[in-house]
Design brief:
This protein is of the alpha+beta class. Helices cover about 25% and strands about 40% of the residues. The chain is globular, with a radius of gyration of 18 Å.
C-alpha cells in the first residue's frame, strides 16, 4: 500500500511540475504595447516550449536592429498548418505583436505576413494591421 501511494504521489508531482512551470503570455508581454516590424528572417528556432524567429529590420536611416519574436510550441504551430519551412532564413516578413516586459526588441508574434502582405499566421484576427 505504501509503495502504491508513494508511486501515485511521485507520478502526480512529475506530471504537475511542467504545468506549474508554464505561464501566461501576459506575464512576459505587454498587451498595451503593440509593435509591428518589417524585416528579413535571420534565424529560426523550432524548439519546445516555444518557437522563436529572429529578424533584422532597417529604419529610414539604414540602422539595422535585430528582433526576437516568440510563438507557440512547434506542436501547436503544426496543428495550425505550419511547417519548419513556413518561415525561412532570408524571407522578408512583417510581424505584429506585443513587446516584452523585459528586454529590448523582443516580442510575442500575433500575426505574420509575407513580403506581399499575405497573412501567414494570426493567433488573433484582431491583431493583424
Amino acid at each position: 500500500m505504501r509503495t502504491t501511494l508513494a508511486t501515485a504521489v511521485a507520478c502526480s508531482i512529475a506530471f504537475l511540475a511542467p504545468l506549474s512551470a508554464h505561464h501566461s503570455w501576459t506575464a512576459d508581454y505587454d498587451a498595451g504595447k503593440p509593435v509591428t516590424v518589417k524585416g528579413v528572417v535571420t534565424k529560426v528556432e523550432w524548439t519546445n516550449p516555444h518557437t522563436h524567429f529572429y529578424i533584422e529590420s532597417k529604419d529610414d536611416k539604414g540602422t539595422v536592429t535585430s528582433w526576437n519574436f516568440e510563438m507557440a510550441s512547434p506542436n501547436i504551430l503544426v496543428r495550425n498548418g505550419w511547417k519548419q519551412s513556413t518561415v525561412k532564413i532570408g524571407d522578408q516578413i512583417t510581424v505584429s505583436g506585443y513587446l516584452a516586459r523585459k528586454g529590448e526588441r523582443m516580442a510575442i508574434a500575433g500575426a505574420v505576413a509575407d513580403a506581399s502582405g499575405k497573412p501567414i499566421f494570426a493567433s488573433n484576427p484582431d491583431i493583424t494591421r
